Amino acid sequence: MSTRSGPSPARTGLLLLPPLLWLGVAYLGALGALFLAAFWTTNEFTGDLVKVFTLDNFRSLLDQPVYRTITARTLGVAVLVTLVDAALALPVAFFMAKVARPGLQRLLVIAVLMPLWASYLVKAYAWRGMLSKSGPLEWLGISPGYGLTGLVITLAYLWLPYMILPVYAGLQKLPGSLLEASADLGAPALTTFRRVVLPSVFPALVAGSIFTFSLTMGDYIAVKIVGGPTQMLGNVVADNYGVANNLPFAAAYSVVPVLVMLGYLGVVRRTGALENL
Amino acid sequence: MNHNWKLVAATAAVLLTAVACGSSSGGDKTAGGSGFKAPDVPMAKKLGTKEGSVSILAWPGYAEDGTNDPKTDWVTPFEQATGCQATVKYFDTSDAAVTLIKTGDYDVVSASGDATLRLIAGGDVAPVNTDLLTHYADIRSFLKDKPYNSVDGQMYGMPQGWGANLLTYNPDVVKPAPTSWSSVFDANSPYKGKITPYDSPIYIADAALYLMNTNPDLGIKNPYALDKHQLDMAVNVLKTQRGEVSEYWSDYLKQQQAFESGDSVIGTSWQFIVNLIDADKKPIKAILPDEGSTGWSDTWMISSKSKHPNCAYAWLDYIGGPDGNAASAYYFGEAPANTKACDVIATTDNDASFCDTFHAGDEAYAKKLWYWTTPVSACLDGRTNVKCTTYADWTQAWTAIKG
């Protein structure tokens, strides 16, 4: 019997069943299966799966210096892309939220969102053209060519909207009166930025960094297009799965970014930034 | 190693539930060279009604249906003649081919020698009844019953053709013209940052071939039979090269674009890609250096999970027949397997010298190329006092080389 105070627990349960099933079976189940596969191996000649428990995959991850190098490189690129995006997003978002008149504000939001309407591949190939020896950057004499630098530029471009939008939203919540009060109390612009703007926008920066950091950690397509001979974590996973047909090793290596992201989210949680979003 | 072959047979037995065969039953066949047991996959005895479709897994340029160039189309005539609607999927590397055929979504595959034995041992391809292929008799005899496409005299496919990986360069930039592979392995290359090697572990054989000519003391007799020390030396050559690389290529369109834009000026390529660049009127030249080269000899194979075996046989007969073989070999730029294909190319493509250029009938020349072969621990050069490195070792080394 249902009362007027709300739906019965049974009905709520029934309503929640599909999303819970999706989360439990499709999402966590797939992750679990992937993790399980990391303890298998493949026959080295035919490439068939050998479902015998082994720690070999994790052992070679630790033993072989090349995987440490690639992990470190990937982390470095992710941090760099995040810093570049933060440095670009702060002034842009500040101008959008605090300086621009409402009409211009809307226009700028559209301008920031616009690149998201174009396909990821189109943008990556556009940068392949930009960075090419016969491209516009080379014509200006400043092309870094294909490689790490080109990769950081391309990824920073690709993920910039994901940083600008949360920072813009965070700055909109910041009352203009606080900035005026800071100025009235005699603080120079830099001090206002450091002691008023930055603390209040920090949770938004962290939210944006989760996007830029995790998207860079997993990227392997842009690396193939503009990275030259550079290998990132995602490439090793993709090559092991798609080329070498070594799903177990790919699964074992995929555990690394999962751990990194869990660690990152743990640190973020401790700063309290997630509660302030 | 013995242990592994048992695993191969055991896994294959699980895969092929329809086949009742123990891992040590007499029904298995043993390949002479590498000594593995081929799982007992049933072979077609006679052809039935065509299923109306066929799914083709091919090297780029082997099954053109007019999408790249409306004038280049030999798939449509096949469809019209047989009623088998063809879907074509191109792959970049032999490893990708092995991975894709295992999905069971494809009926036929054009497999190079570094994939064929892996496919046979894995039970992924079926033996081919050559009596059912009307054009098999016209295939050059030195491509039949080879260690890479047969086991114990049982053919596993229809030969397509063979050719060499070519030293390719931009003649406007690379002067004087290169004559040897050393120009891509030179530690002080003037083309630093513009060298483009092939992105696959099998490319290690190219470095081994280079060492075979420049460092005879190492004792490399076959670039696919490397012991631990020899592999380390080849890896060193490639690590040096790594600093000079613009990008490793496996996507032929990206290599074409990199040569055309000048981002790459010298490297390994295929005649097919050279022709595409040539068609765009960009400077490109390709040579086969005197010291020889690695190369491929491809065989069309039928998936053991094929849902359209009759259309698959029809495709094999067509692509190995004079017209299909001529069109694909001419477009790709390789020696056709069918003896009658040369006449077709001479008349329809008006290119009488094509087969001479590619030494199509020249068995002695064909023997000079080092065809892609899967490295196995039983040394392919016949050494028994040492264990050779396997393809798994090469795959790991390749990741380490790229760093």
Question: Topology of this structure?
Answer:
The complex is a heterodimer of chains A (277) and B (403).
Chain A: H1 9-37, E1 41-42, E2 49-50, H2 56-63, H3 65-99, H4 102-117, H5 120-131, H6 136-139, H7 148-173, H8 176-184, H9 189-218, H10 221-226, H11 233-243, H12 247-271
Chain B: H1 2-15, E1 29-30, E2 37-38, E3 53-58, H2 75-82, E4 85-90, H3 94-101, E5 108-111, H4 113-121, E6 125-126, E7 150-151, E8 154-155, E9 158-164, E10 166-169, H5 182-185, E11 195-196, H6 204-214, H7 228-242, H8 252-261, E12 266-269, H9 271-279, E13 285-287, E14 294-303, H10 309-319, H11 322-332, E15 335-336, H12 341-348, H13 354-357, H14 363-368, E16 370-371, H15 391-402
Helix pairs in contact in B: 3-4, 6-7, 7-15, 8-9, 11-12
Summarize the structure.
Chain A is built from 12 helices and 2 strands.
Word description of this protein:
Chain A has 277 residues and is an all-alpha fold. Chain A has twelve helices and two strands, in the order H-E-E-H-H-H-H-H-H-H-H-H-H-H. Chain A has a single domain (65-271), classed as MetI-like fold, CATH 1.10.3720. By secondary structure, chain B is an alpha/beta fold. In chain B, strands 3, 4, 5, 6, 9, 14, 15 and 16 form an eight-stranded mixed β-sheet that branches. Chain B is globular, with a radius of gyration of 21 Å. Chain B folds into two domains: 41-162 and 296-361, Periplasmic binding protein-like II (D-Maltodextrin-Binding Protein, domain 2, 3-Layer(aba) Sandwich), CATH 3.40.190.10; 164-294 and 374-402, D-Maltodextrin-Binding Protein, domain 2. At the A-B interface, strand 2, helix 3 and helix 11 of A face helix 1, helix 3, helix 4, helix 8 and helix 15 of B.
